[in-house]
Design a protein that fits this description.
The chain has helices at about 15-20, 45-55, 70-80, 95-100, 120-130, 165-185, 220-230, 295-305; strands at about 1-5, 25-30, 35, 40-45, 60, 85-90, 105-110, 135-140, 150-155, 235-240, 245-255, 265-270, 270-275, 280-290, 295. With about 325 residues, the chain is an alpha/beta fold. The protein folds into 2 domains: about 1-200, Rossmann fold (3-Layer(aba) Sandwich), CATH 3.40.50; about 210-305, Formyl transferase, C-terminal domain (Methionyl-tRNA Fmet Formyltransferase, Chain A, domain 2), CATH 3.10.25. Helix 5 packs antiparallel against helix 7.
Length: about 325
């Protein structure tokens, strides 16, 4: 099939790679405009743009696909004569005029078992909620946000201590495999249209910097899940002695000590910092102070002191 691919972040790269190395023909790639990144805030291309350029593919970078502002881009998309548009974490809404443009319409690679976790951050949501299973769903796109009829789903087990980077990469590869399977079904006329059960739906909004703030009144497992899900961005942070302290890794501890959640119960140079939670306690085993690098807590404590009895907020 002749394909136009739409995607932006690293999650979408394996699917583009799979398409390029399949019997399908990728005519062009649509990705978001270059954005400021890094300490110097210099314009940087998206991971998908970098991959597309390596493959010698035409790249389109519209700010929007709304009709009033994208007539030229729409005309260009139409001129390629694609059979189908494949979308994976593109980041821009596709209006009806674009959704209906190719003969086989548009399909989306979504990183959850829909209708669970529609929206921008499904992988983060699965970790935040302590799920043991996730997966990929390939859908026929409609005007809603991840509401289209399903073609197929592929399950993936989440490992007990898995963090976002590892789960993200496994999900991205599963997305590529699932997409090729779905395209084969479409080619053969065997693709199903299974409606989603709206009553079972949930939404995973885009993460904000404010999501990094630790609430020590939460139970231990929820705090551990927060550090798993928000690594590397936006991270999980608290305030100690008036300064930001990032906590990258937590381990559950058996503790019945009384005290306000957030209280430092112990400091162990070989283990880390023991902190009271809403229902027990956790060991903070990887830390990062203001202006420093993330490091094991045992290294952090060699040059800095955290006082027993202090309350993190």
């Amino acid at each position: 099939m002749k394909v136009i691919y739409m995607g932006t972040p690293a999650f979408a790269v394996p699917t583009l790679d799979a398409l390029v190395n399949s019997h399908h023909q990728v005519l062009a790639v649509c990705t978001q405009p270059d954005r400021p990144a890094g300490r110097g805030y210099k314009l940087a291309p998206s991971p998908v743009k970098i991959k597309a350029m390596e493959c010698g593919l035409p790249v389109l970078q519209p700010e929007t696909l709304r009709f009033a502002d994208s007539k030229e881009v729409r005309a260009q998309l139409n001129s390629f004569g694609a059979d189908i548009f494949v979308v994976a974490a593109y980041g821009l809404l596709l209006p009806k005029g674009v959704l209906n443009m190719p003969p086989l319409r548009c399909v989306n690679v979504h990183a959850s078992l829909l209708p669970k976790y529609r929206g921008a951050s499904p992988i983060h949501a699965s970790l935040l909620n302590g799920d043991t299973m996730s997966g990929i769903t390939i859908i026929h796109m409609d005007a809603g946000i991840d509401t289209g009829d399903m073609i197929l789903s592929k399950e993936l087990e989440i490992h007990a201590d898995e963090r976002f980077p590892e789960l993200h990469d496994r999900m991205a590869q599963l997305g590529a495999d699932a997409l090729l399977e779905a395209l084969k079904l479409l080619e053969n006329g065997d693709a199903t249209r299974t409606p989603q059960e709206t009553a079972l739906s949930s939404y995973a909004p885009m993460l904000q910097k404010s999501d990094a703030i630790i609430n020590w009144q939460w139970p231990t497992q929820r705090l551990i899940n927060q550090t798993r899900a928000l690594d590397p961005w936006p991270g999980s942070q608290t305030i100690y002695d008036g300064k930001t302290l990032k906590i990258w890794r937590l381990e559950a501890a058996v503790c019945e000590a009384a005290g306000m959640p957030g209280t430092v119960l112990a400091v162990d140079s070989a283990r880390g910092v023991l902190i009271k939670t809403g229902n027990s306690a956790v060991w903070a085993t990887e830390l990062q102070g203001d202006g420093s690098k993330r490091m094991p807590a045992i290294d952090y404590l060699r040059g800095r002191k955290i006082k027993v009895g202090a309350v993190l907020i």
